[in-house]
Write a structure and sequence with these properties.
The structure holds two protein chains of two kinds. By secondary structure, chain A is α/β, with parallel strands linked by helices. Helix content of chain A is about 20%, strand content about 30%. Chain A has three domains: about 90 residues, Translation factors (Elongation Factor Tu (Ef-tu), domain 3), CATH 2.40.30.10; about 110 residues, Nucleotide-binding domain of ferredoxin-NADP reductase (FNR) module (Rossmann fold); about 80 residues, Ubiquitin-like (UB roll) (Roll), CATH 3.10.20.30. Chain A is built from seven helices and 18 strands. In chain A, strand 3 and strand 4 form a beta hairpin. In chain A, helix 4 runs parallel beside helix 5. Chain B is an alpha+beta fold. Helices cover about 35% and strands about 25% of the residues of chain B. Chain B is globular. The two termini of chain B are about 25 Å apart. Classes of the chains: A alpha/beta, B alpha+beta. The structure holds FE2/S2 (inorganic) cluster. The site of FE2/S2 (inorganic) cluster has 14 residues of chain A, from loops.
Chain lengths: ~325, ~325
């Protein structure tokens, strides 16, 4: 645990310090540490993963991230969705939520000379963070924002933050037309950031490609958490003793072996150092490390047990 | 060095060898873990000050006066340099709360460092509120050398840095270069893969994750600055030391403790390099270190010996350590 920012291995426990409706069906939550301490800073465009009852959803942080005293997220209620947003619309001020540390998957490019931000609907949330940080650091930017008339979240605030750098649209067609024109006119040092409904992203991407933009300068927000997924459970057999060890989802093979009293030498626990290699007797490893070469992977006779798992239900190891 | 200084120096020295042989590897491990050694231990902090703090900062100042290019910041790294400054000062204050503090009021920060008698107020993002570039200021308070890597085009680029104690490389030549290229022509395919793997690992590093690794070489005399630019000043000594009866006092094991952090506000990678020097004479006071380092040197393959610049004196050093 890093005591200075309240982070634990399981993330942060944050109290709902405020909740307000910022547009129809959009609820903004202010999350603070119960002890009032500061929260980990974050890169603009970062998201957190929030435990919503029995599921976990990712939400963009809307602050500038520089010295956050609270995290703010804006949640669109999706009654037909997986239930996470309905859960967050139901919780009350004072409730405690488990929230992951911030993860950056949509950062501003440091080397860009100008930032072109394009948002549709609730896709505005990461842009709020980009806009605030851009003002702090004096970055050049322009924001294109499409929302239903009267239903746009954070509109008043964005008008104040952006001034004439904000362009508002009420329909996707108008937004797309304007963005396409801008894409053709933008100088080479401009980077494009888009977040919104899938069709809007397709339009924007197509426009960038037509205008000859290289993929390096086009950034599209997707909530693909960078961490390894917990993986399916499987069972290992230790060939020398015949011991069977089950490896549940979310527990690494290395951890399972340690718990079973069969520690393996290790160092990074991230699949990079090469210390925790073990020999496979039977079963197909699911390689998730950065250490083994393609040839070694194909041979399938060793596995880096700190990160890798098994494609089958059973794996037999030479231990 | 006085005896008490020497014993604390030995106690804190990050002796890097886990075995009697050495090969290049991606030897990264989580930061902030204490490593016990035969003489004491090291590693519980990210930043480390010791008895040489003031002397080394004075030396850094001298080097910078002679060659200001040792601190180079490409313009797009401005935000990263502020991020590095806040991170370094915040880390120092948390590690040495009795001597240092960092207080914030809005965007105004107040920094106090009693060890150096420094009090500085500054406003985030306002270069004029500091006596120098944010990176230079960070380097005037911490003993570490600092490199900042920008991530773009699926690679890492060393686009800013303050490096005064470089071991046989040079920030001046390397700024703006890809992380892979900084390491120069490495002797084996194996080493090349180690570095590619390190780059991929760093690109996946998330905010809040902190790793470290050690690296080592050897240096003649207590010379922190063995950069490429000053080669004419120290290159010759590599040859001359071999026949010098003072060889065990002059030859030093040079260990770098390198920390790798994702900076939280800018997303740049902060690469900290802290250099420790220990003469063979002092190292030999710990018998386990003496015999282990003797084995490592004697066994080191020729191409690695060459790569580390040890060819002239490797045999002489191994011989002395082995008791010859
Ligand atoms: S512990 Fe480093 S690769 Fe597994």
């Amino acid at each position: 645990m890093n005591e200075r920012d309240g982070r634990t291995d399981e993330g942060l426990l944050l109290r709902v310090a405020g909740a307000e409706h910022v547009a129809a069906d959009i609820r903004m939550l202010r999350l603070r540490r119960a002890d009032g301490g500061g929260l980990p800073p974050f890169v603009p465009g970062s998201h957190v993963v929030v435990d919503c009852g029995d599921r976990r959803n990712a939400y963009s942080l809307t602050g500038d991230g520089i010295e956050p005293e609270e995290y703010t997220i804006s949640v669109l209620r999706c009654p037909g969705g997986d239930g996470g947003s309905v859960f967050l619309h139901g919780i009350e001020v004072g409730d405690v939520l488990r929230v992951s540390g911030p993860r950056s998957a949509f950062p501003p490019a440091a080397s860009a000379h100008h930032h072109l931000l394009v948002a549709g609907g609730i896709g505005i949330t990461p842009m709020l963070s980009h806009v605030r940080a851009a003002r702090q650091w004096g970055r050049s930017f322009r924001l294109y924002y499409a929302h239903r008339p009267g239903a746009g979240a954070h509109v008043a605030e964005l008008r104040r933050l952006c001034g004439d750098r904000l362009r508002e649209y009420t329909g996707r067609a108008d937004l797309t037309r304007a963005v396409r024109a801008e894409l053709r006119a933008s100088p080479l040092g401009t980077h494009l950031y888009a977040c919104g409904p899938g069709e809007m992203l397709d339009d924007v991407r197509a426009g960038a490609a037509e205008a000859g933009w290289l993929a390096d300068r086009v950034h599209v927000e997707r909530f693909s958490a960078a961490e390894l997924d917990p993986g399916a459970p499987f069972t290992v057999t230790l060939a020398r003793s015949g011991t069977r060890v089950s490896v549940p989802s979310g527990v690494s093979l290395l951890e399972a072996l340690e718990k079973a009293g069969t520690p393996v030498p290790n160092m990074c626990r991230q699949g990079v150092c090469g210390e925790c290699r073990v020999s496979v007797v039977r079963g197909r490893p699911l390689h998730r490390d950065l250490y083994l070469s393609e040839a070694e992977r194909a041979a399938a006779d060793t596995v880096m047990c700190c990160v890798s798992r098994c494609l089958d239900q059973e794996l037999e190891l030479d231990l | 060095m006085t005896d008490t200084m020497l014993s604390s120096h030995l106690a804190r020295f990050p002796f890097p060898f886990r075995e009697d042989t050495y090969r290049y590897s991606t030897n990264v491990e989580p930061a902030r873990q204490f490593v016990p050694t035969e003489a004491g231990g090291w590693g519980e902090h990210v930043l480390d000050l010791d008895a040489t703090y003031e002397a080394e900062l004075t030396e850094r100042e001298r080097i910078l006066r002679r060659d200001p290019s040792r601190c180079t910041v490409l313009p797009h790294m401005r935000v990263a340099t502020w991020d590095a400054l806040l991170t370094v000062l915040g880390e120092l204050a948390a590690t040495y709360p009795g001597q240092m503090s960092l207080h914030r009021d809005g965007t105004t920060y107040r920094w106090r460092n009693d060890l150096l008698g420094v009090k500085q107020e500054f406003v985030l993002g306002e270069e004029d509120s500091l006596p120098c570039d944010p990176l230079l200021f960070a380097g005037s308070q911490a003993q570490e050398d600092i490199v900042l890597l920008d991530q773009r085009e699926d690679a890492l680029w060393a686009d800013a840095g303050l490096v005064t104690f470089a071991a046989d490389w040079s920030l001046g030549f390397d700024v703006g270069m890809r992380f892979l290229e900084i390491h120069g022509p490495v002797p084996r395919v194996h080493e090349e893969r180690v570095i590619t793997r390190a780059e991929r690992f760093l690109m996946r590093l998330e905010a809040g994750q902190e790793y470290r690794r050690t690296n080592w070489t050897m240096t003649v005399d207590r010379r922190l600055d063995t950069s490429t630019e000053t080669y004419p000043e120290w290159g010759r000594d590599r040859r001359l030391v071999v026949t010098d009866p003072a060889l065990p006092d002059r030859l030093h094991l040079r260990v770098e403790v390198q920390h790798l952090l994702r900076l939280p506000r800018s997303g740049a990678i902060l690469f900290l390099i802290r250099t420790y020097l220990l003469s063979l004479t002092d190292l030999a006071r710990v018998p386990a270190w003496r015999s282990r380092f003797a084995s490592v040197l004697a066994e080191l393959p020729d191409d690695l010996t060459e790569y580390k610049g040890l060819s002239h004196y490797r045999d002489a050093a191994a011989h002395w350590l082995a008791g010859g």
